[in-house]
């Protein structure tokens, strides 16, 4: 019998997978030194972005049951 693959829990909390299989992430450093950031920078950090293809390949190993 083969062993089950473990999900990388830290990455599972940071990344969401869409129904089509895309990995969506948020920008980092939103709350760190926030008073020095412009309102435009804070608003842009609040959106979700798609991960790059190179990172997507690595995440498929970390999150084996996300698809």
What does this structure look like?
- The chain has a single domain, classed as Factor Xa Inhibitor.
- The protein has a three-stranded antiparallel beta sheet with strand order 1-2-3.
- The chain is elongated, with a radius of gyration of 15 Å.
- By secondary structure, it is α+β, with helices and mostly antiparallel strands.
- Helix content is 34%, strand content 13%.
- The longest helix has 10 residues.
- The protein starts with 8 loop residues before the first helix and ends in a 5-residue tail after the last helix.
- It is built from three helices and three strands.
Q: Helix content range of the residues, please?
A: 25-40%
Question: Span between N and C termini?
Answer: 22 Å
- Unreliable residue runs: none
Q: Please tally the β strands and state the result.
A: 3
Mean model confidence by pLDDT:
90
Determine the CATH topology.
Answer: Factor Xa Inhibitor
Structural class: alpha+beta
Q: What can be said about the biggest beta sheet?
A: 3 strands, antiparallel
Q: Cα-atom Rg, whole angstroms?
A: 15 Å
Approximately how much beta-strand content do the residues carry? 5-15%
Domain count, please report it.
1
Dominant shape: elongated
Can you write the helix and strand succession as a string? HEEHEH
* CATH class assignment: Few Secondary Structures
| Architecture (CATH level 2) name | Irregular
What's the number of helices? 3
Record the strand order, biggest sheet. 1-2-3
């Amino acid at each position: 019998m083969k062993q089950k693959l473990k999900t990388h829990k830290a990455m599972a909390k940071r990344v969401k997978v869409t129904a089509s299989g895309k990995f969506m992430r948020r920008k980092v450093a939103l709350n760190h030194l926030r008073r020095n950031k412009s309102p435009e920078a804070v608003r842009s950090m609040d959106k979700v972005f798609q991960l790059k293809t190179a990172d997507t390949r690595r995440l498929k190993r970390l999150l084996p049951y996300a698809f």
